[in-house]
Amino acid sequence: MKRMKNFRHIAGIMSMMALLLVMLTASAFAAANWDNAVVTAEGTGVAPATAYNSVQARIMARRAAIVDAYRQLAEQIKGVNVDADTTVENMMVTSDVIHTHVSALVQGARIIDEKTLGDGAYSVTVQVPMFGVSNSLAAAVIERPQVKESFPPVVSKVEPSVPRPATEYGFPSLPSTTAPSTQPIYGPGSSASSAPAGRAIGGYTGLIVDCRGLGLKPVMSPVIKNAEGTPIYGYKNLDYDKVITNGMAGYTTDISRAARAGSNPLVVRAVSLDNHNGNPVLSVADANRVLIENGATGFLDSARVVFLR
């Protein structure tokens, strides 16, 4: 009887060691998809040889795959940049609250696919959204600012640039640009009201910042600056709930997928990047144009911004 108990004890230890080995050596992937604003991880697992039957083997393989997927998802999430200077891992180290929120987010990740592989292996794919009202990475790590800041005034000594047609950048199905207005067009929270000489062209539905070739690093909370170093767009300028729900900007390598900016976007070219390549920098003239046009249609207020990289 004693020998039987010892045998079961040893078998249990071997089973746990085999399961741990599967978790450590499983072939899988994890990635942050900035085009779709999700973090996805696939875990794989194989049941230990000590499984009593095929049903238990499948259950144990699935369990190992889930644990592996969560582990990889957690590592991937830690590397996501919240802003140009800070990763999720940095924030978890400095804040127990954020650490708890992120851990809960990982454990609550949605299983989007699972399947049996060959030789008794099992695959599980989990995913968390970067943005959303609840159960999103943004809700876990982006804190509500104490005060919502106004957009800055334009630099009055610099004339705003004359926009190039978005068709020159390859944007499809662009309607004709409306003629410049003869009077300033000021919308709610206008950034043009402090520039008497500023005149909005009007009709722009969003903003595309062309950063191709500069090595732009996607971040959850980007800042657009002008060449003088003045921020003209950041999350403190926006409604916090909108930022959490939809994010501040979309990222894409294909301008035809820039639907977030609407059918008639204002397109400007970044002259450089700032803060570890996370923040686009515009010429002062282009930044002035962006602020003036935002005063007309409020596309910055609505976060209808896309970064082309």
Account of the 3D structure:
By secondary structure, this protein is of the alpha/beta class. It has two domains: 2-141, no CATH class; 166-308, no CATH class. 30% of the residues lie in helices and 19% in strands. It contains seven helices and twelve strands. The strands form three sheets. A four-stranded antiparallel sheet has the order 1-2-4-3. A four-stranded parallel sheet has the order 8-12-5-9, covered by helices on one side. A four-stranded mixed sheet has the order 7-6-11-10. Helix 2 (54-78) runs antiparallel to helix 4.
Low-confidence segments, given as residue ranges, are: 1-27, 174-190, 192-197
Beta-strand segment tally: 12
The main β sheet shows up as:
4 strands, antiparallel
Total of helices? 7
Number of domains: 2
N-to-C SSE string, H for helix and E for strand: HEEHHHEEHEEEHEEEEHE
Span from first to last CA?
69 Å
The value of Rg in angstroms is 25 Å
What structural class is derived from the secondary structure elements?
alpha/beta
Global mean pLDDT: 83
CA-based shape: elongated
What is the strand arrangement across the widest sheet? 1-2-4-3
Strand content: 15-25%
Helical content stands at 25-40%
